[in-house]
Amino acid sequence: MKKLINKPEDFTKESLQGMILAHSDIIKINYEPTFIYRADAPQEGKVGIISGGGSGHEPLHVGFVGRGMLDAACPGEVFTSPTPDQMLAAAKKIDSSAGILYIVKNYSGDVMNFEMAVEFAHLEGINIQSIIIDDDVAVKDSLYTQGRRGVGTTVLAEKICGAAAEKGYSLQQLKELCKKVNQNGRSMGIALTSCTVPAKGTPTFILGDNEVELGIGIHGEPGRERVTIKSGDEITEILANAIIYDTPYQRPLREWDQAQGKWQDVELLNKPWQKGDRLLAYVNSMGGTPISELYLIYRKLAEICHREGLEIVRNLIGPYMTSLEMQGCSITLLKLDEEMLRLWDEPVKTASLRWGV
Amino acid sequence: MKKLINKPEDFTKESLQGMILAHSDIIKINYEPTFIYRADAPQEGKVGIISGGGSGHEPLHVGFVGRGMLDAACPGEVFTSPTPDQMLAAAKKIDSSAGILYIVKNYSGDVMNFEMAVEFAHLEGINIQSIIIDDDVAVKDSLYTQGRRGVGTTVLAEKICGAAAEKGYSLQQLKELCKKVNQNGRSMGIALTSCTVPAKGTPTFILGDNEVELGIGIHGEPGRERVTIKSGDEITEILANAIIYDTPYQRPLREWDQAQGKWQDVELLNKPWQKGDRLLAYVNSMGGTPISELYLIYRKLAEICHREGLEIVRNLIGPYMTSLEMQGCSITLLKLDEEMLRLWDEPVKTASLRWGV
User: Fold this and answer.
1) Beta carbons within 8 Å of B202's beta carbon, 6+ residues apart
2) How many helices, marked H, and strands, marked E, lie in chain B?
């Protein structure tokens, strides 16, 4: 295992400490339990937005805490869910009585722990609502997940809902908005190489010298199939077509029913994409792929969208949701309406996403 | 060779095309010869700033073209100098009679070709001055370089001089400023793995499973030594100490003497660092190292600087000057004065560095 780390068990903590030292004007850290929060929290009268999940996907989520995005992030150990006490403590820290939205990626451990945190929070009088992001079109169920996994759309939901919270949206409005973003966002990824969890010390999976895994999960979960490596253009065709021709209404979306005390499947807001739809195209590095290759993928993606009559009006290209040093990329397409587009353009100031300020 | 590319010979062109498609509000491209320029060029009355060099280091330099940074960038093929006709054509495109500053990384091919371009430009009545960046403390001479190589300080010089040009600095003032940035910036890098130039198809060099190369060049040139992999903290100590205790006046700095028609060594402006000096700390990924590891390096770097009485007042952390998919990092420390600090904070809007707008 060749990494720029010290003791494997200190990796997450020491990486976080570096982020806090580098961005002390934007974020602060709480230990025991660990969570990162806006240096200017709580924001009086504003709904708080919290996300979290296993570490190893940096800059997600810690790099997205700040004005116009998240109020707090709860990092677990590498590829391990954060605990309910982290989530509860973060909620208490940032709550300003306007309520809190949890944005949760659909992994069984994350969902279960956030669910417990919601229950604890309600007992303490904090009003929390959750939205689960489940945008990965690659597989229906997966190694750590019932239903679709939550991937790239999470970043976009955090940005868009973060802007809306800043604008004074109520908790109920934010919940509807986050649901809309999730239902209009779809993703799929590919791995060229595996990655190594520091505490384990050996690769999560093995790929042959000429093999790639299509539809990989961000923890190295199996995707749709292993194939011989193809050209960048061919890979982009496979990912883009899987996303564009996905049947989104097959995807159940769940929300917490407070009255009944359980998760409920809910009606879907989205429709299949049509010619003329406007998209945000997000090409993401899995961590070890340089951005020169991401732009080559974007080139083909733009050509495909044009061919399909879809208009890319915004883009995001870079390593925003990684799997340690894994080589590969993912594509996320989000169908935008006026509201989402306007909110995307609002100022944001976080460690890893910044414009307008 | 596992990469997200098509034909190796199309890699540079197709990656550039993706950047242009993604950032058409900021940059445009000219073919035959190839250069990228600000979409709003020429800027009347403003000195133009141009940089360039081999491709494979993205986002350098194309990702830094835009308001508050470069006016144009000339990308060569992977790890290959751009040609004088690229540089001359870029100069003609952006010249608004206020003159042009070339920022050149010290590699013999780059220097020679920029020198030729300067001669051609003078014949055409364009006033161009060059500054060579030679900030790599690792080795005195290298595979492709006489003197020290030009690395991370280039990014900082482009940002600081770009802001100054926007503020109306004259060509002579910009030249002095760029010289000052170079003389106060020092870098050193480490490689954990090699990288593969697409057209070659095999790794540039071979490192053993437990070996790392200290002082690596951005084209895989040999560094100071190969050693068994060490902890992140130990590696940071080695890099930081090499930088902090470097003897900067050993470094010759050259500038173009127009009257005599040749490069001249010039007097040095810098002094050894002292307690209380204020620094910009830049931790850079070589391309394949995830930012979680960069932050772990930053954590130790901040501790070392504190111990040495040096104050980090700004930082930049991420993949800004890469070597394809090479795993590893480099550290650059730039001693700031009030002028550099103020210019660093000015707004910038490029594909890869953006704040304030």
Assistant:
1) B1, B196
2) 8, 17
| CA-wise closest residue to A85 among A130, A43, A149, A30 | A30
Residue A321 pLDDT more than 50? Answer: yes
Chain B 63-122, CB below 8 Å of chain A: which residues?
Answer: 63
Establish, for the pair of chains A and B, how many residue pairs have beta carbons separated by less than 8 Å: 176
For residue A139, the Cα-to-chain-centroid distance in whole angstroms is 17
Cα(A114)–Cα(A299) distance, integer angstroms: 38
- Cβ distance of A299 and B18 shorter than 8 Å: yes
Listing DSSP states for B188-212 in one string gives: EEEESS--B-TTT-SBSS---TTEE
So what's the pLDDT on residue A248?
53
- Angle (nearest 5°) at CA B191 between B188 and B195: 125
Contact B147, B265 (CB under 8 A): no
Which two structure tokens, joined as six digits, stand for B294? 């960069």
Considering only CB atoms, B290 lies closest to which of A193, A315, A322, namely A322
> How many CA atoms are closer than 13 Å to the CA of B66, on its beta-carbon side?
22
CA distance B24 to B36: 11
What pLDDT is stored for residue B261 in this prediction? 75
Query: What is chain A's Cα-based Rg?
Result: 19
Closest to A4 (Cβ–Cβ): which among B3, B287, B293?
Answer: B293
Query: What is the rounded distance in angstroms from the CA atom of residue B135 to the CA atom of residue B149?
Result: 6
Compute the average pLDDT of residues A72-81.
98
Report ipTM (2 d.p.): 0.94
Over range B95-106, report the average pLDDT.
96
Assess whether B219 carries a catalytic annotation: yes
Say what the pLDDT of residue B251 is: 57
**Contact (Cβ atoms closer than 8 angstroms) between residue A35 and residue A89:** yes
Instruction: Give me the count of residues in chain A.
Output: 357
Average pLDDT for A121-127: 95
pLDDT at A246: 82
B108 in Cβ contact with B141 (< 8 Å): no
How many residues does the structure list for chain B?
A: 357
Q: Does A130 touch chain B (CB under 8 A)?
A: no
In chain A, whose CA is at the least distance from the CA of B208? A2
Structure tokens at A51: 């996300």
Token pair in block for residue B186 = 């020092």
Name all domains of chain B by residue range, CATH numbers in brackets: 8-183+344-355 (3.40.50.10440), 185-337 (3.30.1180.20)
Provide mean pLDDT across the span B261-277.
73
Structure tokens at A311: 């208009």
What average pLDDT score do residues B285-289 get? 98
Which one, of B159, B201, B298, lies nearest residue B7 by Cα? B201
Contact B15 A292 (CB under 8 A): yes
Alpha-carbon A118 to chain mean position: 20
Average pLDDT of chain B to the nearest whole number? 94
Angstrom distance (rounded) from CA A64 to CA A58: 10
Cα–Cα dist A92/B267, whole Å: 59
Is-cis flag, bond preceding A203, omega within 30? Answer: no
Of B15, B209, B357, the CB nearest to A295: B15
Answering whether pTM is above 0.80, one says: yes
How far apart are the CA of A21 and the nearest CA of chain B, in angstroms?
7
Q: How far is CA B95 from CA A46, B64, B86, B90, in A?
A: 49, 18, 14, 8
CA A118 – CA A353 distance, rounded (Å): 28
